Each structure stands twice: as structure tokens, then as C-alpha cells.
Amino acid sequence: YQYGLNSETPLEKSFRFVVIDEAFSKSDDRNSQYALELFRQLGLQLLVVTPLDKLDVIKPYVQRIFVTQIPRDNHRSQLAM
């Protein structure tokens, strides 16, 4: 409501960016899909940080997937597309 998420405000005139950090790590797939579908209906742009085992759940709802890892012998993370 604060950000103008209503049917009268055009998508480009409202702030709709949401960061979700491991929100789906403890929920089952059905509840995760329900939340993602709700976010889609609200027209939200998501940045989802999730464990690898939830990739199959979020794939239908995202455009790009990036995998970040920290090799055991290094102290710097790497990004793969």
C-alpha cells in the first residue's frame, strides 16, 4: 500500500523491487510457488537468494539465474551464469 501497489497506479510509476533472502529455504514447494505467484500478480521485480535445491521451484518465475560460490581454497566468491 505504501508503494502505490494498486490497480490505478501504472507499473512504471510504482516501486516494485523486492529482495528475498532465503525466504523459501524452510517452506515447502507448494507454499513457495503460492508466494511467487502472488508476487507475479502484484507485478513485483524480485531478487531471490535461495539454496540450490529450490532452483526448480523458482525457475518459472525468474528470467535469469546466477550461481555464487566460494571455492574451498579461496576467500573470494565467484559468479557463474
Could you characterize the architecture of this molecule?
The chain is globular, with a radius of gyration of 15 Å. The chain has helices at 29-41, 55-58; strands at residues 17-21, 45-49, 67-69, 78-80. The protein is 21% helix and 20% strand. It has 81 residues and is α+β, with helices and mostly antiparallel strands. A two-stranded parallel sheet has the order 1-2. A two-stranded antiparallel sheet has the order 3-4.
Keywords for this entry:
81 residues; alpha+beta; two-stranded parallel ribbon; 20% strand; globular
Task: Give the end-to-end Cα distance, rounded to a whole number of Å.
Answer: 35 Å
Order of helical and strand elements: EHEHEE
- How many distinct beta strands? 4
Please tally the helical runs, counting DSSP H or I stretches of 4 or more residues.
2
Strand neighbour order, sheet with most strands: 1-2
Shape: globular
- What structural class results from the helix and strand content? alpha+beta
Q: Note the main sheet.
A: 2 strands, parallel
**Which bin fits the share of residues in helices?**
10-25%
In quaternary terms, these chains amount to single chain
Give Rg in angstroms.
Answer: 15 Å
Strand content: 15-25%
State mean pLDDT (0 to 100 scale). Answer: 79
- Identify low-pLDDT runs: none
